[in-house]
Write a structure and sequence with these properties.
Blueprint lengths: L6 E4 L2 E5 L4 E11 L8 E10 L1 H4 L6 E10 L3 H9 L9 H10 L3
Antiparallel strand pairs: 1-3, 2-3, 3-4, 4-5
């Protein structure tokens, strides 16, 4: 997740289950660098389960289960985001999600 521009993440623990192709992240937290508290997102548990049948057709499809997700939006963080010259489309969010999923490939 090093490609997130203006944000950083922390992760308590990750568990990869090779037999069923699942990845579970515990304590995933996303912080805005300029205003890290409160965190932008806090997920107690995020579980990815690959659908193997789709792999054989050239597609990567996964079910994602979020347990107790919390998203914090406040005016200070929104103003900092609006003032940032880097557009949201170039912040690296899509790259970060793809990086998580590529662990299972």
């Amino acid at each position: 997740m090093r490609n997130l521009v203006g944000y950083h993440t922390t992760l308590n623990h990750a568990h990869l289950q090779l037999l069923d192709g699942s990845l579970t992240l515990y304590g995933l937290v996303v912080h805005q660098n300029k205003h890290p508290n409160p965190p932008v997102a806090d997920m107690a548990r995020m579980a990815f389960h690959i659908q193997w049948r789709e792999i054989f057709t050239g597609h990567v499809v996964a079910d994602v289960l979020l347990t107790h997700p919390r998203v914090h939006i406040n005016l200070i963080q929104l103003r900092a985001e609006k003032a940032d010259p880097v557009p949201l489309s170039q912040k690296g969010w899509q790259d970060a999600i793809q990086a998580i999923l590529s662990v299972q490939d």
